[in-house]
Amino acid sequence: MFLIDSYIRDRLVRKVRAKKEKIARLGTPYTENPKVSAVVTSYNHRANIKPILEAYRAADLEELIVCEDGSLDGSRDEWLKHLLRPNDFLIVSNELNELRIYNRAISLARGEIVIVNQDDDIPPQDASWIRDAVRLFDKYPRLAILGALEGAQQPIFTLDNYYRVKSLAERLGQAKFRIPRKEIQHRDPELGVGFMFIDVVNNGPLIFRRQAYLELGGLDTSRSKAGESMMFMDYDLCYRAWLAGWQVGLYEHAPFVTNAGQRASVLFAHGDRKKRGKETREYLNQAYSHVYEDVGSRARRLNEEFLTLADHKETVNS
């Protein structure tokens, strides 16, 4: 028995040493205070893991947190093969759904800026989308939430008032759903980035100033049970941000591949998704209709300010 135990122990020692050597060869030391962290929610999209990882590795992302919420397609094992860097983390949960996962992961993250990315959206290989987001947060110290997919002005549930950042499929003319959206026409005069302040933005991905997210208490989980999907609660967070003196924006960037392998909230929907969406819309109108005009006017004033600055800069340079 002693010989067997000794053999098992020695084999484990060799494995541990080999793993330590493998991690050392990667040349990526632990970063105590990363500038940017990414949180990727994982739910049965194993085929998307490699391109998502490649995009974040190409961007030299300092910290990556994967939230594996009970996939049955081998996603957990696939992530484990690749999450070898000191600032790589894997959180394993069981069908909690996104609201609670985001709150857990962002409280764990150490980045000043936190990107939230679902595993059915694949980031571009061009890392300028992260650099431009950081530049916007650095320039606008009260910017709390930055949308990278779409946002809306009042009334928020009217398609004519939606602004959308085009996905790769849309730019290639392969989008399945062709709902007309307004494009961002504003451009930050100093950064040269398409950007506008806007009432609300929604997920796919979202980028947060971590300090603001924590101050606001994160996403509201009180309106759903663990495991239930909850649509439009990102809008709720945006309104709370504006009312607390923070700001919300939407910006242009290199395109994502969206709905890769079909969106999980549709493919694996729990319960009546349309019904829950209707319930949340009714809640938002009840909770925030009295501030709709105030929030919208704040965003418009901020946009007018930097549009005036852009006109002045153009006049000076001409």
Summarize the structure.
The protein has 318 residues and is of the alpha/beta class. The protein has one domain (29-317): Spore Coat Polysaccharide Biosynthesis Protein SpsA, Chain A, CATH 3.90.550.10. 42% of the residues lie in helices and 16% in strands.
Major sheet attributes:
8 strands, mixed
Secondary-structure element series: HEHEHEHEHEEEHEEEHHEHHH
Helix content: 40-55%
**At the first level of CATH, what is the class?**
Alpha Beta
Query: Number of helical segments?
Result: 11
Domain count, please report it. 1
CATH superfamily: Spore Coat Polysaccharide Biosynthesis Protein SpsA, Chain A
> Using DSSP, what is the number of strands?
11
Give the overall form. Answer: globular
If you had to describe this structure to a student in words, what would you say it looks like?
The protein has 318 residues and is α/β, with parallel strands linked by helices. The chain has a single domain, classed as Spore Coat Polysaccharide Biosynthesis Protein SpsA, Chain A, CATH 3.90.550. It contains 11 helices and 11 strands. The strands form 2 sheets. The chain has an 8-stranded mixed sheet with strand order 3-2-1-4-10-5-11-8, sandwiched between helices. A 3-stranded antiparallel sheet has the order 7-6-9.
